Amino acid sequence: MQPSRVTAVLGPTNTGKTHYAIERMLGHRTGVIGLPLRLLAREVYDRIVKARGPGVVALVTGEERIVPPRTAYWVCTVEAMPEGLGCDFLAVDEIQLCGDPERGHVFTDRLLHARGLHETLFMGSDTMRQAIVAMIPQVTIQRRDRFSELSYAGSKKLSRMPARSAIVGFSVENCYAIAELIRRQKGGAAVVMGALSPRTRNAQVEMYQNGDVDYLVATDAIGMGLNLDIKHVAFSATTKFDGHRMRELRPDELAQIAGRAGRHLAAGSFGVTGEAEELDEGVVNQIVNHQFVPVKKLQWRNSDLQFGSIKRLLQTLEARTDNDWLTRVRESDDLAALRSLGNDEIVAARASDGPSVRLLWDVCRVPDFRGISKGEHASLLMRIFTDLHQIGHIDENWFALQVARIDRDDGDIDTLSKRLAYIRTWTYVAQRKGWLRDENHWRDQTRAVEDRLSDALHGALAQRFVDRRTSVLLRRLKQKESLLADVNDKGEVTVEGEFIGRLEGFRFRMDKAGSPDEAKTLRQASAQALVPHFHLRADRFYNAPDTEMDFTEQGGLMWGDQAVGKLTAGDDPMKPKVVAFVDDEAGPDVIAKVQRRLQHFIDRKVATAFEPLLALKNDETLTGTAKGFAYRMAEHFGIIPRGEVAEEVKALDQEARGALRKHGIRFGQFTIFLPLLLKPAPTRLRLVLWALQQGLQEFPESPPPGLVTVPAAQDAAPGYYAMAGYRAAGARAIRIDMLERLADMLRDQNSKTGFEAVPDMLSITGTTLDQFADLMGGLGYAAEKGERPKVKAARPPIPDRPADAPGDMPGEGVPTDPGEAPGPDLPNPMPDEPTTVPGDAPTDLPGMPPAMPAQLDAIGDSTTGIVEEGTDTTEAPAPEMETFYTFTWGKRPARQGGRPQGARRSDDAPRKAEGGQPRRGKSDGKPGGKPGGKPQGRRGPKPDDKPQSFAAKPARTEKKIDPDNPFAAALQGFKPS
């Protein structure tokens, strides 16, 4: 007799391997095909029945057995394949499962021992090529290529998942959660899991295949040969629990599932969704190119069993092999059950001979469909074995009670699923030959219960995960039927009388509180009513005045309270582009009209806010360096730190500078800027345009208007404060125009010997003394803190005068309470008019006598300790102390303004002091000089060369009135003599 021809058909998914096996089997008189799942077995069984009729086709799985009298073709799960039939043809599908830790030993046994009389066929992945050749030397290998292209689509949100997609999860809870989300967003999904009965699974698949729903949520069960109309496969996770631990799926396992996308010649794609991370590029290349690590080890368990005793059976089951390709499978559930029952004395006594040991082994192979504890499963098996051993069959009363307890079709999805798992156990038992006295009755009975539960579960799944209204609308849309849709004057959209959302600007928003959010079918239905409404709204928007529109600090474009677009960077920083927020359903005409109107709005906004800058840029009379500098100003939106253009400024001659000053440019010591652009409106727009140019993801907001200084954020984007019209110095940032005024004041101070802050400095910066010291540190000055007794001048007697007489001193009426002194962030609405406190010249200035004579008389001679007779000898109270800072030029700060701050004169500063006297030149040790060369540190004051200094403190005590001053006398109400 000619030996069986063994062929291995290997390749990726969608190569027609299963179809080829069916064709080959039907070419023989008899045949057996083993499949990895009972769902796939049922699908193949139905195909062969259509070709040959039900009278010659058998279906044998763990829970189902259909065997007609004239069976010629057997369709089975691999575990249920009959042995010793002597059929002409034999095939095993998904042979790469030889490497599976759970079921691999069964597939390996079929690879080694299962043969057809004339032809044997193994179908599976190309990773099995080396192993098959090693185990079957005479095998013929056929390599098959995929019919269609498979590509990687990356990550997609569920809300953007294309139609005809399958979302894969690896737990029941995960699948249900995904299906619920799809119901809300897409109208519904079918659910396919390995734990479902074939009847439920077929009903769910039919719902997907006929178009009632466009989405399928499944476990990895779809990876084993199920042929469905799937265009895209998305993994919601890339890890699974394999019964022992959570592990990452191997590339070949991912490819087996991803390959379900694209059937026959139709291309398919795969990707990830939800919380699943993007697949590595190497993994993607392996899947797309079908190149995986070959299988190195095949799971194996000895099939040459000996049933002399339980101990001997265990020894043969645990036997090892010397074959390098085979590795012993880890302890399986049936072996664990045998070990557990074998330890029971009663079971061990009953299983004392070969037939009883064989019976015990058959009982131990009943799967734990219920998923309960090993102890409970062992108790169930012990009861079955006891009945079979004692009375020859299972007690039918007890069996009927177990089935009756499950025969209820009420409850939720979880309850029905649990009952289905339980009935699978009794269906499996009923399929065992000779275990029940009336086998046919109980097979029909358990099958009927499973069918009822399957129908109930299908109904529950459809009710929970499918929106019936959406399904109806979907079918009517496909059939081109008109829908009752309406849009009222408030933008509320109703379909078939039900409120489903509203229009916001030119985009449709689904109602989250009502129907499924962003459901595609409802959106399509509403589009029929929205298209004419879009055109009417676009006409009204195009004719709306600019006052109804505005831009946000994040670059958004608003029409009233509705977002209608956003700004994007253009080729010219002063000419941003716009993107309109318009739904595609509105049509290209509406999109173009809205975008054109928004562009007109922002162009006019820029022209108005930056009129001085645009006039500077477009001035044709400017030439040479002046013209180039004008373009530099335009590139920087009218504000440039001087340090960035120091050489360019140096290159400007007086004529060029004069031409630029005519446009309002101020050449400050720290910044070159257009003062008109420091107003709130240009600043707000400038920051948006600058953020667009920089490509920032989050745009910084402009500081509150009117503040001279603001807190300086450490994480601010480089260049932000310049664009906001400020300069960061220490913990705060100061407005650049106020900084230039401060620089003018600092220029008159001696930065070598040291100076103290005058009240005007605190006034224009709006800071406290400590804040001012920190700000000066940020500008490069060293601040030395000290304390000294607070000296108050004696108040002179005030002559009697009428109550309504005017004050006799400048500044009378100024608050003297420290709490009324100007604080930080004092509002200053106009850039060139800082808030100041009039009449606050200090009275306790260094260089003045430390105390008035009247005070000296009260204190006495403190140097000699002599006290005049009659003087109170009580110890004088401790003098009140005050804090002061002495500022010297200390260090060079970050280069933002060029030369050392405070040591140079701005180009626009007056060149003469008040009164027409020229200012002093470089430092000569006198006030008003500039430090020459590098700072040499603070020089201590000499008794005969003490610089005049000032301190910021509460309002002073009024000085005496000069009686010879006619102005002061007039203020006091005196008449000149």
Main sheet makeup: 8 strands, mixed
Give the CA-CA distance, first to last residue. Answer: 153 Å
Low-confidence stretches: 513-518, 801-871, 892-903, 911-959, 962-977
User: How much of the residues is beta strand, in percent?
Assistant: 15-25%
Q: Percent range for helical residues?
A: 25-40%
Q: Structural class, judged by helices and strands?
A: alpha/beta
Helices, by number, come to 30
**Strand runs, count:** 34
What is the residue-mean pLDDT, rounded to a whole number?
Answer: 80
Shape descriptor reads elongated
In the sheet with the most strands, the strands line up as 4-3-5-2-6-7-1-8
Radius of gyration over C-alpha positions, nearest whole angstrom: 46 Å
Short summary:
This protein is an alpha/beta fold. It is elongated.
Structural overview:
By secondary structure, this protein is α/β, with parallel strands linked by helices. The chain has 30 helices and 34 strands. The longest helix is centred in the middle third of the chain and has 27 residues, at 439-465. The radius of gyration is 46 Å and the shape is elongated. The model is unreliable at 513-518, 801-871, 892-903, 911-959 and 962-977 (pLDDT under 50).
